[in-house]
Amino acid sequence: MEIFLSAILGELASRSINLFISKISKPKVLDVEGSLQRALLRAQVIIDEATGRHITNQAMLQQVDMLRDAIHHGCYILDSFTYQSHEEEAKDQVLSHSFSLSKVNFLKGICSSDRKTMLLEHLEGAHDNLSSMILDMKEFVVLLMSYPHMYRHPYSMHLLLGNCMFSRQMETELVINFLLDAQPHGSKELEVLPIVGPAKVGKSTLVAHICKNERVQDHFSKILLLHDHDFRDNDLAILKEGCAMKHQNCISNLNKDKGWLVVVDLDSDLNEDAWNLLYSSCKQLMPSTSKIIIANRSAKIIEFGTTRALNLKYLSLEASWYFFKTIAFGSMDPKMHPRFAHVAMEIAKLLGSRRFNGVNVVACLLRDNFEIRFWCNIRDFLRRLVQKYVSKFGVHPSDLMNHNKLVHLGRMANPFEDLLFYREYQRYSHEEVPKIRVQDVVYGSVKALGKLEFLSWVSPIPPYYSYVVICEVRELKRRVAKRKRSTENGTTIC
């Protein structure tokens, strides 16, 4: 009788807790969620308008960049709340079949209370930050209308993000303003802008977009692009031969009185002797109005600059998720597919934001295979891969791949084969590329064996590189090796 009475009292207590929590927290959370959604819409209108205009004011560009970061953060918090809540509701249904009702309700009440309190704090913080930024941008919106339009947006956001440079508007305008800014009268020294950033951060993409800009092309008579192979010969004859020698990398117009723009985009380090030779050659052969951009991962090039260096950083996880979600779902609304969205968010976290090509590849792969089992398999495969490298080496596999270090990727569809990544390099758009895609080998069932080249990604934006990876497919022994034990100094070694 006492056990029965205790069970009834426990049931009543848990239900009272759940009722109290739901009455207090649920309306509050939903209110903040709705307010955040409305704030995100208002902020997105400002960003869309700003993205389509030629903004030259540095302070306004910083405001745009800060508002964009706030939007990415707000979307990330909102999606975390929405899709995590959906996943926990599904888990609660599973738990209810395994435990008694009183235990489930009691545990659910305690856990949901803590979770909702934390989510409410994050939602309120994101909403307050975004709302205050919108209020502070009243003058910004008025001034924005005075800047000319740049282009019309495509109808679908995934087409826009998939075919333009993502989240680099401020950096682009900073470089363009440097290039169009007139030099002091009588100056004989050429102005040099260093662009520094880690591997795969997007330095080549940034300078390629700048070279394609109409304002930049109209300002310079020649735009010359130099890469690593142009520094193999010490005489740098490319500067004397000009466009005749590097026609495919040179953009010219008829005005010969204008200065040249020389873009030095290097993967390897540039030593001081090579730089001095290049700089002296440029001074001898080019008008004094010419300018130089040098892009490299090494911070040593900062000392070559005549102005403050531009430091490129990897995208934040929130910005990477915004991009990943938009590409993966295409024209579909993620809110209509909460289970897919929850899995996609887990995949985005596992991929990180340090290897943008990989994020793009997986997002397109998910979009082309809209099946929940396939998405879950990719999530589980990536989770095992990331956990293995983080636990053993304390590093994400993407960091190793960015520096062309050996990575055992494995194959999702065939556990008896291993895929070894050796290195990645890019080819120009006119060069031939392998027929087999590496994602079809990693995540699919394409047959391949031995050391081969695979196509990783064909970029739809300048400089239109095709990324090729060198990998090796190895067969693994199916026989399980026996554990060998030996004793050394009283210690058992496995």
TrEMBL record:
Q: Which SUPFAM superfamilies match?
A: P-loop containing nucleoside triphosphate hydrolases
Q: Looking at the record's lineage, which domain of life comes first? A: Eukaryota
Q: What InterPro entries does this protein map onto?
A: P-loop_NTPase (IPR027417)
Q: Which PANTHER family does this one have?
A: NB-ARC DOMAIN-CONTAINING PROTEIN (PTHR33377:SF23), OS10G0134700 PROTEIN-RELATED (PTHR33377)
Spell out the protein name for this chain.
NB-ARC domain-containing protein
Q: Which organism is it from?
A: Urochloa decumbens
